UniProtKB/TrEMBL annotation:
Record pathway: Cofactor biosynthesis; thiamine diphosphate biosynthesis
Keywords on record: Iron, Metal-binding, Pyridoxal phosphate, Thiamine biosynthesis, Transferase
Family indicated by similarity: Belongs to the NMT1/THI5 family.
Protein name: Thiamine pyrimidine synthase
Catalytic activity field: N(6)-(pyridoxal phosphate)-L-lysyl-[4-amino-5-hydroxymethyl-2-methylpyrimidine phosphate synthase] + L-histidyl-[4-amino-5-hydroxymethyl-2-methylpyrimidine phosphate synthase] + 2 Fe(3+) + 4 H2O = L-lysyl-[4-amino-5-hydroxymethyl-2-methylpyrimidine phosphate synthase] + (2S)-2-amino-5-hydroxy-4-oxopentanoyl-[4-amino-5-hydroxymethyl-2-methylpyrimidine phosphate synthase] + 4-amino-2-methyl-5-(phosphooxymethyl)pyrimidine + 3-oxopropanoate + 2 Fe(2+) + 2 H(+)
Record carries keyword Metal-binding: yes
Coiled-coil ranges (or none): none
Source organism, top-level taxon: Bacteria
Quaternary structure annotation from Swiss-Prot or TrEMBL: Homodimer.
Pfam hit, one: NMT1
SsuA/THI5-like domain mapped to chain residues: 65-271
Described purpose of this protein according to its UniProt entry: Responsible for the formation of the pyrimidine heterocycle in the thiamine biosynthesis pathway. Catalyzes the formation of hydroxymethylpyrimidine phosphate (HMP-P) from histidine and pyridoxal phosphate (PLP). The protein uses PLP and the active site histidine to form HMP-P, generating an inactive enzyme. The enzyme can only undergo a single turnover, which suggests it is a suicide enzyme.
The keyword Chloroplast is annotated on this UniProt entry: no
Length: 390
């Protein structure tokens, strides 16, 4: 069900190679080499706070709040690090669990994998207020009724992503036992769909624009329009929340992300430029218009209905409970999960305690390059969902 092969050769640069992950047949991660004593020493303090991606790469626009905040100095003197991680979809929780990273960014499905396998993790900052996930189809082959996927094949970049798609389909009334999944590889699963393999593929907001840049022009059933499930979230070791110093650090760190989110909302083009400065190849591949399209898709997901939220990162416990109830029905977890036990809004007030007027002034004060200054953001917003199945 998940891709649980050891990824020793894929340990990201900057993460200590003294620890090696082994994965049992049940999917539980253990550490060898220096063993548990080495891991305890690593967890004693955040000498360098490491965030790990769920995608196997950082060269995407998804993490624009971090790069915007870093450029603007919103993290202050905090020693922060970003790592791409292996492309195995479950690595983002495994590495946090054993102390090789301090914060992961799993989908709810991968978070449920961690809970099911006894990883003592807790969601502290819910990035995806709306469901970012979508189902991509070749042009003219899409459907508004996902029950039409029964008997069909869905392509995934990692086998672990089945934990994302199963609850999405089940919530739409699909008999998931009648759906076949094929792991078509990262980053090639979209190309495989375009090439005639499978009937559909998992996608998400932001990626839709990046796929267009690669010549992959699909139509989509969009979760942001049709799903009530939550999306990716920031998780940490639950024990870290019991440590006063670590909790204080996390509040400051998440405040940097919240300020970066606010910055991007106020000036999405400037946020794209911050990412492009970090990754010139991404800038070359996407360009200003598709880059801005991608970030606007993600801002819609990350912001959600802010009038009903407690600020950036706030969990909607009803949405999360609905997700846990759904995955219990389909057997993705074997015991009930109470949302409040694994998700917390305790850090949200502190994370959102910043001067919004100053962030707006910072964002408005950015001098855009010629290519970005020429863009009509309102026009792009008006066409964000043109690729939805008609």
């Amino acid at each position: 069900m998940t891709n649980d092969k050891p990824t020793h050769s894929s340990v990201p640069a900057g993460i200590s190679r003294r620890y090696f992950l082994q994965v049992t047949a049940a999917g539980v991660v253990t550490a060898t080499a220096l063993g548990a004593s080495g891991l305890k020493a690593r967890a004693a303090a955040y000498e360098k706070f490491t965030w790990i991606s769920p995608r196997g790469t950082l060269e995407v626009l998804d993490d624009y709040p971090y790069w915007s905040a870093k450029k603007a100095g919103y993290f202050g003197d905090l020693n922060t690090d970003m790592q791409p991680g292996p492309s195995d979809g479950t690595a983002t929780v495994k590495f946090v669990d054993v102390g090789q990273a301090d914060m992961g960014f799993p989908s709810p499905g991968v978070f449920s994998f961690a809970i099911q396998n006894g990883m003592k993790l807790k969601s502290v900052f819910h990035m995806g207020a709306r469901d970012t996930f979508s189902i991509a189809f070749r042009k003219g082959q899409g459907t508004k009724n996902l029950k039409d996927l029964e008997g069909k094949t869905i392509l995934l970049g990692s086998a672990a992503w089945q934990a994302i798609v199963d609850p999405l389909l089940a919530a739409q009334g699909v008999d998931i036992k009648k759906v076949k999944y094929v792991e078509a590889g990262w980053p090639t699963w979209g190309t495989a769909l375009a090439g005639g393999q499978g009937d559909a593929a998992l996608s998400w907001e932001g990626l839709r624009a990046e796929w267009i840049a690669k010549g992959l022009d699909f139509e989509y059933w969009l979760g942001v329009q049709n799903s009530k499930l939550p999306a990716n979230t920031f998780v940490v070791r639950a024990a870290d929340l019991e440590d006063a110093d670590k909790k204080a650090f996390l509040e400051k760190y998440l405040r940097g992300w919240a300020m970066g989110l606010e910055f991007g909302y106020q000036n999405p083009r400037a946020a794209v430029e911050a990412v492009f400065e970090q990754f010139p190849t991404l800038a070359k591949n996407l360009g200003p218009e598709l880059g801005t399209t991608s970030i606007l898709q993600q801002i819609n997901v990350f912001r959600g209905d802010m009038d009903k939220r407690g600020g950036w990162g706030s969990h909607d416990m009803a949405s999360w409970q609905g997700f846990f109830d759904e995955i219990l029905k389909i057997g993705q977890i074997t015991a009930p999960v109470k949302a409040e036990d694994v998700c917390t809004n305790d850090l949200i007030k502190a994370a959102n305690d910043f001067d919004k007027a100053k962030v707006k002034a910072d964002a408005d004060g950015v001098k855009l390059s010629e290519g970005f200054a020429a863009l009509d953001v309102d026009k792009i917003k008006a066409h964000l969902f043109d690729s939805a199945v008609k």
